[in-house]
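Database export, one record per block. Field names are fixed; values are copied verbatim from the stored entry.
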Amino acid sequence: MSFFNSYFTDTQIYLLLFAGLFLLLAFIMHVKEKNILSVVFLGLTAICIFSFSALLDPFLNLWDERFHALVAKNMMNHPLMPTLYDDPVVDMAYDRWDRYYIWLHKQPLFLWQIMLSFKIFGLSEFSLRIPNIVMGTALVIATYRSGKLIVDRNVGFISSLLTISTVYIMELAAGRQELEHNDFSFLVYISLSIWAFIEYYYSKKKIWIYLIGLFSGMAILCKWVVGLLVYFGWFVLRLMQKKIKLSENKDFLTALSITLIVALPWQILTFLWYPAEAMSAYKFNTSHFTVPLDGHDGSFWYHFDMFNTIYGKLASFLIIPAFWILYKNNKDKNLLNSLVSMVLVVYLFFSLAATKMPSFTIVVSMIVIIAFGTLLYYAIEFVNQYVKKDVFKHIIFIVIITAIVMLRFDIGYIADKYTLKKDNNHYTMMLTHNKEVFKSLELPSNTVLFNVKGRHYIEAMFYTGVPAYNFMPSFEQYRKLKDKGRIIAVFVKNDEKIPDFLKDDISTIFIHKEIMGYE
């Protein structure tokens, strides 16, 4: 316990303790075949784990979380007008994604979620991540249900625990991995659309058609057209079933229509309201496939090399046996082939794309994790065939799963990366320092802040509420700002030459505090 007390807050420690308690209760309910209670306690475990992760970084993360937080904060006043610079008072070219005025760099749904959380719970790093806590819990429950339908309730249970203990998923929810909230929402909505597809396959109830369409549309509103992934798998299924006539695919077309109804209005409105910005964002997004944007390049095998990073050590060696065991033990081969086709097309598409980023393929993680869950369950069953008494079988099941979950949820790794356990954790130290600097500034509301190091002007705008830039103003910019009645504040670095027109202006605020981090 002294280890935890040294590096984690009391709240984080209590969350971990409650997670352990709820996990134990989930095991007990599962062994007693009280499935509903088991799922309830799995959900409570997920809430605790994702809440723990949301508290890991008490600052806005690099590289994108800070941008998403700022845009969502600005949208509180105008939800249909996403802005990065809410007050673009300085005459300059707002012509890049990292300095746009109207910010259409990402689709808006996940930003609306953050905006709503800010409105309800106030502005904080934790409230920024509350939507991920809710969505992560939904992902865990959807994984349980999907695993249960594809194989059985044991595979569903194990797969949900593998989801909870996947540190990469936790880090996305925590805002630390690249594209964090954006990719996490995308992952969850695509997973929910696949879950609804599986439910519809077995039940044929119309409600699932509508939910497929809804979740797919919401996925598009988080990132873009890969949100249609479920329809690729559905199309493959219909080919295997030899159902290619329009009259045989009314359900498919109904769901697709709902997806378009959900996703298209925003695309149309942005081109009507912000045509230049919308066209620029569209060209940028479509160029991902042909150009390695922002230096995010890699070989064809990049996403295969990332496999162990996302799913854990040895994952790349176990994935083929996992899918083989899943293929041998699933309830319906046609459905499984449809799901596998989604995995294959995602890996092929993003392997061919020029821009490579770690989380691009995570949208199929629910299917991959269910394969691992199947492998693990049948490995336990292999051991249990030599055990006669059921009570010992249950004990073996609980002990093995608990051990694997604890090994995967590497608390030592988390402490090293997210706390000041090690003196060389410069990332945490510098961003904690920068936040303290920005929060300490008491600037008049009509201030414009200049010479902020690198892209840290984004955090500066979030914490101070005034426009911020990473350069010294020119005389022309200075003159226009003074004509508008603005006060100028400038970060002053050691031995840096300050323009005379700033030094001669007694109203200029000089800030002699260091901003740490990247240029």
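Remark 1: The two ends are 40 Å apart (CA to CA).
Remark 2: The chain has a mean pLDDT of 94.
End of record.
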